Amino acid sequence: MLGAVLLVGMGTLGFVDDWVKWKREGGRNGLSRRAKMFWTLLLTGYVAAMLWSMGERTGRPEIGRIYAPLLKDLFAPTEHYGWLGFGLFLVFESFVILATTHAVNVTDGLDGLAAGSGLITLAALTVAVYLVGHAEWAAYLNLPRIPGAGEVVVLGGALIGATLGFLWFNAHPAEIFLGDSGALPLGAMIGYLAIVSKQELALPLLAGVFVLEVGTSLIQILSCRWTGRRPFRKAPIHHAFELAGMKEPKIVTRFWIGGMVSAVLGLLLLKVR
User: Fold this and answer.
1) For the segment 61-79, what is each residue's pLDDT rounded down to a tens digit?
2) Would you give the DSSP letter of residue 68?
3) Of 120, 66, 73, 60, residue with least CA distance to 272
4) Closest by Cα among 34, 220, 200, 183 to 106
5) Which of 67, 189, 191, 259 is a Cys-bridge partner for 97, taking CB atoms 3.0 to 4.6 Å apart?
6) How many CB atoms lie within 10 A of CB 256?
7) What is the pLDDT of residues 166-178, one digit of tens each?
8) Contact between residue 118 and residue 245 where contact means Cβ atoms under 8 Å apart
Protein backbone atom coordinates (compact mmCIF):
# COMPACT_ATOMS: atom_id res chain seq x y z
CA MET A 1 0.00 0.00 0.00
CA LEU A 2 2.78 2.45 0.91
CA GLY A 3 4.60 1.63 -2.31
CA ALA A 4 1.45 2.33 -4.31
CA VAL A 5 1.00 5.69 -2.54
CA LEU A 6 4.59 6.65 -3.37
CA LEU A 7 4.27 5.42 -6.96
CA VAL A 8 1.05 7.33 -7.65
CA GLY A 9 2.22 10.42 -5.78
CA MET A 10 5.54 10.69 -7.60
CA GLY A 11 3.90 9.85 -10.91
CA THR A 12 1.38 12.64 -10.38
CA LEU A 13 4.15 15.08 -9.46
CA GLY A 14 6.09 14.14 -12.59
CA PHE A 15 2.98 14.44 -14.76
CA VAL A 16 2.20 17.92 -13.43
CA ASP A 17 5.80 18.97 -14.07
CA ASP A 18 5.66 17.66 -17.66
CA TRP A 19 2.25 19.27 -18.20
CA VAL A 20 3.53 22.67 -17.03
CA LYS A 21 6.47 22.35 -19.44
CA TRP A 22 4.09 21.51 -22.27
CA LYS A 23 1.80 24.43 -21.47
CA ARG A 24 4.83 26.71 -21.67
CA GLU A 25 5.22 25.70 -25.32
CA GLY A 26 7.76 22.95 -24.80
CA GLY A 27 10.00 24.94 -22.50
CA ARG A 28 12.40 23.22 -20.12
CA ASN A 29 11.00 25.02 -17.08
CA GLY A 30 8.29 23.05 -15.32
CA LEU A 31 7.55 23.26 -11.62
CA SER A 32 10.02 25.24 -9.57
CA ARG A 33 12.78 23.34 -7.77
CA ARG A 34 11.31 24.36 -4.45
CA ALA A 35 7.87 23.03 -5.35
CA LYS A 36 9.27 19.70 -6.57
CA MET A 37 11.49 19.40 -3.52
CA PHE A 38 8.61 20.20 -1.15
CA TRP A 39 6.23 17.60 -2.58
CA THR A 40 8.97 14.99 -2.91
CA LEU A 41 10.03 15.42 0.72
CA LEU A 42 6.39 15.36 1.83
CA LEU A 43 5.79 12.04 0.08
CA THR A 44 9.08 10.45 1.13
CA GLY A 45 8.71 11.68 4.70
CA TYR A 46 5.21 10.21 4.90
CA VAL A 47 6.37 6.82 3.59
CA ALA A 48 9.36 6.73 5.97
CA ALA A 49 7.17 7.70 8.94
CA MET A 50 4.63 4.98 8.11
CA LEU A 51 7.39 2.37 7.80
CA TRP A 52 8.70 3.37 11.23
CA SER A 53 5.17 3.21 12.64
CA MET A 54 4.70 -0.25 11.11
CA GLY A 55 7.82 -1.49 12.90
CA GLU A 56 6.54 -0.07 16.20
CA ARG A 57 3.06 -1.60 15.81
CA THR A 58 4.24 -5.05 14.76
CA GLY A 59 7.10 -5.25 17.25
CA ARG A 60 9.58 -5.71 14.40
CA PRO A 61 12.31 -3.08 14.95
CA GLU A 62 14.19 -4.42 11.91
CA ILE A 63 11.92 -2.30 9.71
CA GLY A 64 13.29 0.89 11.26
CA ARG A 65 16.95 -0.10 11.35
CA ILE A 66 19.71 0.85 8.94
CA TYR A 67 21.88 -2.15 8.04
CA ALA A 68 25.42 -2.21 6.67
CA PRO A 69 26.22 -4.57 3.78
CA LEU A 70 28.86 -7.26 4.42
CA LEU A 71 28.84 -6.58 8.19
CA LYS A 72 25.36 -7.94 8.77
CA ASP A 73 25.54 -7.69 12.54
CA LEU A 74 26.36 -4.00 12.22
CA PHE A 75 23.28 -1.78 12.12
CA ALA A 76 21.95 1.47 13.52
CA PRO A 77 19.44 0.48 16.27
CA THR A 78 17.30 3.58 15.78
CA GLU A 79 14.49 2.14 17.89
CA HIS A 80 16.57 2.68 21.06
CA TYR A 81 16.84 6.45 20.63
CA GLY A 82 13.21 7.53 20.65
CA TRP A 83 12.48 10.70 18.70
CA LEU A 84 16.15 11.07 17.78
CA GLY A 85 16.15 7.63 16.21
CA PHE A 86 12.90 8.40 14.41
CA GLY A 87 14.39 11.62 13.06
CA LEU A 88 17.53 9.82 11.87
CA PHE A 89 15.46 7.18 10.09
CA LEU A 90 13.18 9.80 8.55
CA VAL A 91 16.04 11.91 7.20
CA PHE A 92 18.10 8.97 5.95
CA GLU A 93 15.29 7.15 4.15
CA SER A 94 13.93 10.38 2.67
CA PHE A 95 17.41 11.10 1.34
CA VAL A 96 17.61 7.62 -0.21
CA ILE A 97 14.39 8.09 -2.19
CA LEU A 98 15.25 11.67 -3.09
CA ALA A 99 18.70 10.58 -4.32
CA THR A 100 17.45 7.67 -6.43
CA THR A 101 14.73 9.86 -7.93
CA HIS A 102 17.25 12.51 -8.95
CA ALA A 103 19.69 9.88 -10.22
CA VAL A 104 17.14 8.38 -12.62
CA ASN A 105 16.19 11.85 -13.83
CA VAL A 106 19.85 12.65 -14.54
CA THR A 107 20.40 9.33 -16.34
CA ASP A 108 17.45 9.86 -18.68
CA GLY A 109 19.51 11.35 -21.50
CA LEU A 110 19.88 8.57 -24.07
CA ASP A 111 17.29 6.26 -25.62
CA GLY A 112 16.75 3.29 -23.32
CA LEU A 113 19.49 4.17 -20.84
CA ALA A 114 17.37 5.03 -17.80
CA ALA A 115 14.65 2.46 -18.53
CA GLY A 116 17.08 -0.40 -19.19
CA SER A 117 19.24 0.42 -16.20
CA GLY A 118 16.10 0.78 -14.09
CA LEU A 119 14.90 -2.64 -15.23
CA ILE A 120 18.17 -4.22 -14.07
CA THR A 121 18.06 -2.47 -10.69
CA LEU A 122 14.38 -3.27 -10.14
CA ALA A 123 15.01 -6.95 -10.85
CA ALA A 124 17.92 -7.11 -8.39
CA LEU A 125 16.02 -5.27 -5.67
CA THR A 126 12.91 -7.39 -6.15
CA VAL A 127 15.06 -10.48 -5.54
CA ALA A 128 16.42 -8.84 -2.37
CA VAL A 129 12.89 -7.99 -1.19
CA TYR A 130 11.80 -11.59 -1.75
CA LEU A 131 14.73 -12.89 0.31
CA VAL A 132 14.04 -10.65 3.33
CA GLY A 133 10.35 -11.56 3.16
CA HIS A 134 11.00 -15.32 3.13
CA ALA A 135 11.67 -16.65 6.63
CA GLU A 136 13.95 -19.53 5.59
CA TRP A 137 16.02 -17.54 3.10
CA ALA A 138 16.35 -14.62 5.49
CA ALA A 139 17.60 -16.95 8.23
CA TYR A 140 20.00 -18.75 5.87
CA LEU A 141 21.51 -15.51 4.56
CA ASN A 142 21.48 -13.84 7.97
CA LEU A 143 19.23 -11.06 6.69
CA PRO A 144 16.61 -9.15 8.70
CA ARG A 145 13.16 -10.70 8.35
CA ILE A 146 10.73 -8.06 7.09
CA PRO A 147 7.04 -8.98 7.49
CA GLY A 148 4.79 -8.05 4.57
CA ALA A 149 7.66 -7.91 2.09
CA GLY A 150 5.89 -10.50 -0.05
CA GLU A 151 3.34 -7.89 -1.10
CA VAL A 152 6.16 -5.59 -2.20
CA VAL A 153 7.53 -8.41 -4.39
CA VAL A 154 4.26 -8.31 -6.34
CA LEU A 155 4.69 -4.56 -6.77
CA GLY A 156 8.29 -5.08 -7.90
CA GLY A 157 7.16 -7.65 -10.46
CA ALA A 158 4.54 -5.26 -11.80
CA LEU A 159 7.15 -2.51 -12.11
CA ILE A 160 9.50 -4.85 -13.96
CA GLY A 161 6.74 -5.74 -16.42
CA ALA A 162 5.75 -2.12 -16.96
CA THR A 163 9.36 -1.02 -17.46
CA LEU A 164 10.00 -3.87 -19.88
CA GLY A 165 6.97 -2.87 -21.94
CA PHE A 166 8.07 0.76 -21.92
CA LEU A 167 11.61 -0.18 -22.96
CA TRP A 168 10.23 -1.94 -26.04
CA PHE A 169 9.25 1.48 -27.41
CA ASN A 170 11.98 3.51 -25.71
CA ALA A 171 14.91 1.60 -27.26
CA HIS A 172 16.89 3.46 -29.93
CA PRO A 173 15.41 5.10 -31.93
CA ALA A 174 12.90 5.93 -29.20
CA GLU A 175 9.21 6.32 -30.02
CA ILE A 176 8.23 7.38 -26.51
CA PHE A 177 10.19 9.07 -23.74
CA LEU A 178 10.34 8.74 -19.98
CA GLY A 179 10.00 12.38 -18.95
CA ASP A 180 9.46 13.33 -15.33
CA SER A 181 6.19 11.34 -15.40
CA GLY A 182 8.27 8.18 -15.63
CA ALA A 183 11.62 9.14 -14.13
CA LEU A 184 10.27 10.34 -10.78
CA PRO A 185 8.17 7.24 -9.95
CA LEU A 186 10.85 4.88 -11.30
CA GLY A 187 13.52 6.47 -9.13
CA ALA A 188 11.25 6.61 -6.10
CA MET A 189 10.38 2.92 -6.39
CA ILE A 190 14.05 1.96 -6.65
CA GLY A 191 14.61 3.81 -3.38
CA TYR A 192 11.53 2.23 -1.79
CA LEU A 193 12.54 -1.31 -2.72
CA ALA A 194 16.01 -0.65 -1.32
CA ILE A 195 14.46 0.52 1.96
CA VAL A 196 12.12 -2.46 2.27
CA SER A 197 14.95 -4.91 1.52
CA LYS A 198 17.28 -2.98 3.89
CA GLN A 199 19.81 -2.63 1.07
CA GLU A 200 20.08 1.17 1.05
CA LEU A 201 23.84 1.12 1.58
CA ALA A 202 24.28 -1.49 -1.17
CA LEU A 203 22.72 0.80 -3.79
CA PRO A 204 26.14 1.83 -5.21
CA LEU A 205 26.30 -1.71 -6.60
CA LEU A 206 22.62 -2.57 -7.06
CA ALA A 207 22.04 0.72 -8.89
CA GLY A 208 25.55 1.16 -10.23
CA VAL A 209 24.69 3.03 -13.44
CA PHE A 210 22.55 5.58 -11.63
CA VAL A 211 25.19 6.16 -8.96
CA LEU A 212 27.83 6.62 -11.67
CA GLU A 213 25.69 9.10 -13.57
CA VAL A 214 24.67 11.26 -10.62
CA GLY A 215 28.14 10.94 -9.08
CA THR A 216 29.90 12.29 -12.17
CA SER A 217 27.39 15.15 -12.35
CA LEU A 218 28.03 16.03 -8.71
CA ILE A 219 31.81 15.87 -9.17
CA GLN A 220 31.55 18.11 -12.24
CA ILE A 221 29.46 20.71 -10.40
CA LEU A 222 31.64 20.77 -7.28
CA SER A 223 34.89 20.84 -9.26
CA CYS A 224 33.68 23.75 -11.41
CA ARG A 225 32.54 25.63 -8.34
CA TRP A 226 35.67 25.07 -6.24
CA THR A 227 38.49 24.88 -8.79
CA GLY A 228 37.01 26.25 -12.01
CA ARG A 229 38.01 23.05 -13.82
CA ARG A 230 35.91 20.36 -15.49
CA PRO A 231 37.14 16.80 -14.82
CA PHE A 232 34.82 15.51 -17.58
CA ARG A 233 34.20 17.00 -21.02
CA LYS A 234 30.51 16.91 -20.19
CA ALA A 235 28.39 15.43 -17.41
CA PRO A 236 26.65 13.14 -16.71
CA ILE A 237 29.27 10.76 -18.00
CA HIS A 238 27.24 9.33 -20.92
CA HIS A 239 27.53 12.72 -22.65
CA ALA A 240 31.33 12.55 -22.34
CA PHE A 241 31.28 9.25 -24.23
CA GLU A 242 29.11 10.86 -26.91
CA LEU A 243 31.63 13.67 -27.34
CA ALA A 244 34.38 11.04 -27.62
CA GLY A 245 32.63 9.72 -30.75
CA MET A 246 30.91 6.64 -29.34
CA LYS A 247 27.49 5.92 -30.86
CA GLU A 248 24.40 6.10 -28.66
CA PRO A 249 23.35 2.40 -28.94
CA LYS A 250 26.87 1.26 -28.00
CA ILE A 251 26.98 3.57 -24.97
CA VAL A 252 23.60 2.34 -23.75
CA THR A 253 24.44 -1.35 -24.30
CA ARG A 254 27.74 -1.04 -22.45
CA PHE A 255 26.07 0.77 -19.57
CA TRP A 256 23.48 -2.02 -19.39
CA ILE A 257 26.27 -4.62 -19.25
CA GLY A 258 28.04 -2.67 -16.52
CA GLY A 259 24.75 -2.34 -14.64
CA MET A 260 24.15 -6.10 -14.81
CA VAL A 261 27.63 -6.92 -13.51
CA SER A 262 27.26 -4.36 -10.73
CA ALA A 263 23.79 -5.65 -9.74
CA VAL A 264 25.00 -9.26 -9.61
CA LEU A 265 27.88 -8.21 -7.35
CA GLY A 266 25.37 -6.39 -5.15
CA LEU A 267 23.25 -9.53 -4.84
CA LEU A 268 26.33 -11.62 -4.05
CA LEU A 269 26.88 -9.37 -1.02
CA LEU A 270 23.72 -10.90 0.44
CA LYS A 271 25.54 -14.22 0.77
CA VAL A 272 28.69 -12.76 2.34
CA ARG A 273 28.48 -13.07 6.10
Assistant:
1) 677 777 777 665 556 666 6
2) P
3) 73
4) 183
5) 191
6) 17
7) 999 999 998 988 8
8) no
